[in-house]
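Page 37, continued from 36.
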């Protein structure tokens, strides 16, 4: 399939501080084909020596539906994927560098990135049209641990399956990228003491995601109960698509970013813009549950989480 025309991948946003000049922003989350990252790969012998790594976009596998034995099931099984609204993939090349390691979890690490340039292999240097920091929102790179590559592949499938919710209840995902590093190299997130298989390259797998806002407050009451329970991104959004988030906990619910050039989209189910986003779908799965079953499975988890947060405590699911 040929790359999409440039006009399908960009949108013009007029901003007063530019003197009424147009600002082009990347509107298609599948516009990037190549990601070149600085400061992610270092030498095992000399950790101060870094080298760029080239990562190429991969197409995630379709999310496989899981059939269960729960009381309330969809008669036709797991729901079909909502048709994509994206144009054909673009051919953009993005040059980025790692700014900081923001955190780590079961699947891998999240790193803040800085975009230095954006070019279109089939057209102009977008930096000549718009500064890179204005073309894209602030981004993070979620890099899989060496033992969790398949889990990140599953998360890529979940983001693809939930395309309709990107920018609504989950982050925008600008692609799943993979590459390799030599046995003499390692990632800055790798354990330097871990054994190195002889003569075997290290596979690198990463998601390029929209950076979210901060953590939810602890010891404060969130907006009214209707907003908290009926409009929360963990309840009634991914469930509409049959997605079960098996890792619903405090660290995985964040505020939406505040970026006027990339505002939150209106929710197709509630008709409003939501202030929260759910993250971390490496353990998620697509089930045959009805909305009623999803509610029964998770209302207790979410309700206890919100109540303990208001009481100035964090109660994780494994502590119930």
């Amino acid at each position: 399939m040929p790359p999409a025309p440039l006009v399908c991948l960009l949108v013009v946003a007029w901003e007063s501080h530019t003197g009424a000049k147009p600002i082009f922003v990347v509107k298609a989350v599948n516009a990037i084909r190549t990601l070149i990252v600085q400061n992610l790969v270092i030498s095992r012998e000399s950790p101060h020596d870094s080298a760029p790594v080239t990562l190429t976009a991969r197409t995630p596998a379709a999310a496989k539906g899981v059939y269960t034995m729960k009381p309330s099931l969809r008669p036709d099984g797991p729901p079909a994927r909502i048709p994509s609204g994206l144009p054909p993939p673009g051919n953009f090349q993005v040059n980025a560098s790692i700014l900081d390691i923001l955190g780590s979890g079961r699947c891998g690490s999240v790193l803040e990135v800085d975009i230095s340039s954006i070019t279109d292999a089939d057209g102009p240097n977008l930096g000549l049209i718009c500064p890179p920091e204005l073309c894209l929102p602030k981004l993070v790179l979620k890099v899989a641990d060496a033992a969790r590559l398949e889990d990140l592949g599953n998360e890529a499938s979940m983001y693809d399956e939930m395309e309709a919710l990107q920018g609504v209840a989950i982050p925008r995902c600008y692609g799943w990228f993979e590459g390799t590093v030599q046995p003499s190299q390692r990632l800055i997130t790798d354990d330097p003491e871990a054994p190195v298989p002889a003569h075997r390259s290290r596979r690198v797998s990463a998601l390029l995601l929209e950076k979210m806002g901060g953590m939810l407050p602890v010891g404060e009451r969130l907006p009214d109960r209707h907003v908290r329970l009926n409009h929360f991104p963990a309840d009634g959004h991914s469930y509409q698509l049959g997605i079960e988030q098996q890792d619903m906990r405090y660290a995985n619910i964040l505020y939406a970013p505040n970026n006027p050039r990339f505002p939150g989209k209106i929710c197709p189910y509630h008709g409003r813009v939501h202030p929260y986003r759910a993250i971390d779908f490496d353990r998620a799965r697509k089930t045959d549950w009805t909305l009623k079953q999803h509610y029964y499975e998770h209302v207790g988890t979410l309700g206890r989480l919100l109540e303990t947060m208001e009481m100035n405590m964090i109660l994780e699911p494994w502590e119930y």
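The CA atoms of residues 128 and 284 lie 40 Å apart. Flag for discussion at group meeting. The first strand starts at residue 10 and ends at 14.
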